[in-house]
Amino acid sequence: MCSRFVPTNKSLREPASRGKIWVKPTDQMDLWLDSQGYYRKHTAKDGSCLYRAISEQIFLAQAFHLDVRRQCAEFAHRHPELLSSVSHCSVDEYVDQMKHPHELGGKVELQVMSLMFRKDFL
């Protein structure tokens, strides 16, 4: 499951703010995060989880993950030197694979988006 850790904001955890009831975590990781003032933000289990996480960090919403994917592919196409570590296919083939919505993103895509958005992603 793709997820990320978000600082806890008590106002966001109240039922009136989110429209649903907040349930106290029972998973060990969730309990530890809660003790540190964080909670786990769940992300859809699909090939776009990396792009969803980046979209939420940049645009504060996962809904823009397809735009983030497209921008990543276009940026990589304009800067083929970023794909020098990819040896199993041509740059054009790799960029075409990146555009597919169910294709998983990895280290290469994370590096491309880091340069594209001028952000460090951990």
Quick structural summary:
The chain contains 6 helices and 2 strands, in the order βααβαααα. The protein has 122 residues and is mostly helical.
Overview of the structural elements:
- The protein is mainly alpha-helical.
- The protein folds into 2 domains: 3-42, no CATH class; 49-117, Cathepsin B, Chain A (Alpha-Beta Complex), CATH 3.90.70.80.
- It is built from 6 helices and 2 strands.
- It has helices spanning 15-18, 28-35, 49-59, 65-78, 91-99, 107-117, and strands at residues 3-7, 38-42.
- It has a two-stranded antiparallel ribbon.
- Helix 4 crosses helix 6.
- The two termini are 17 Å apart.
Order of strands, main sheet, comes to: 1-2
Bin the strand percentage. 5-15%
SSE sequence, one letter per element? EHHEHHHH
**What is the CATH-assigned architecture of the largest domain?**
Alpha-Beta Complex
Low-confidence stretches: 10-17
- The radius of gyration computed from the alpha-carbon positions, rounded to a whole number of angstroms, is 17 Å
- Outline the biggest β-sheet: 2 strands, antiparallel
Count of β-strands: 2
The chain-level structural class is: mainly alpha
Mean pLDDT: 85
Q: What gap, in angstroms, lies between the N and C termini?
A: 17 Å
What count of structural domains? 2
The CATH topology annotation of the largest domain reads as: Cathepsin B, Chain A
Q: How many helices does DSSP assign? A: 6
- Text of the CATH class of the largest domain: Alpha Beta
Proportion of residues in helical segments: 40-55%
Organism: Graphocephala atropunctata
InterPro entries: OTU_dom, OTU_OTU, Papain-like_cys_pep_sf, Peptidase_C85-like
Pfam families: OTU (PF02338)
Protein name: OTU domain-containing protein
